[in-house]
Amino acid sequence: MKVFVIDEQKCNGCHNCQIACKDEHCGNDWSPISAPQPLTGQFWCKVDERTVGQTPKIRVDYHVSRCNHCENAPCMAAAENDTVYRRDDGLVIIDPEKSKGQRAIMEACPYNAVYWNDELDIPQKCTGCAHLLDAGELPHCVDVCTTGALRFGDYEDFADELVDAVVMKPELGCGPHVYYLNTPKPFYAGDVYDPEADECIEGAKVTITRGSDGARFEQTTDIYGDFWFDGQELGNHELSIEAEGFLSCTKHFDAEESLNLGSFPLKRDY
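-> structure tokens emitted (270 positions)
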């Protein structure tokens, strides 16, 4: 079984995969696997960009979405006359000739990964570049990924890594064959300073205690007085700051997203 593995920590948002998909499929007829993809309106491989946090503590996350070539593909169940089928390698293909007028195929996809071609009156989606695979090549999107964020191959080759992988909307029971590694998690950041000297405080001990289970995370501020806790969970937390020669500081917060907790002025302990 072939799978896509996407390491979101390695994705830098270059959009090479998205452009490569257009290059491979727009204006090219790969029947009986796929008809030409329209120039606009369809993204069989799509890079979404999301800015999280608040200025000046922000981060840009990238997410690559595509057909998941599901084990229990809803599009297959919605299709008539075996229009949607699974290849021996696991890729799910919509027959461009048989699918004419079958809008239900598009509507059945819970991932919005199947598009409707108004001109041809057919549903379309990622084919995993099956025509290239048959020629012994990689999917074009994978071939152009310069960071190694996007990979493709046999499940067995990635089995050890996929222990820590996630799939999109697992609660649907579709059994996606697209796996994600290092998906972004919330962060909490801020800075500590001495208002009397108008200077950043380096080396302050910053502790976050998670309300749900009491887990503690510690850091020390850098030369700019900054602290940054990555890989966190949402919910109630307590932040405490300690620095030699200063009074300690405590803050409670309830996070629904990544947060810039702001600047913390510490009073001198005379």
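The two ends are 68 Å apart (CA to CA).
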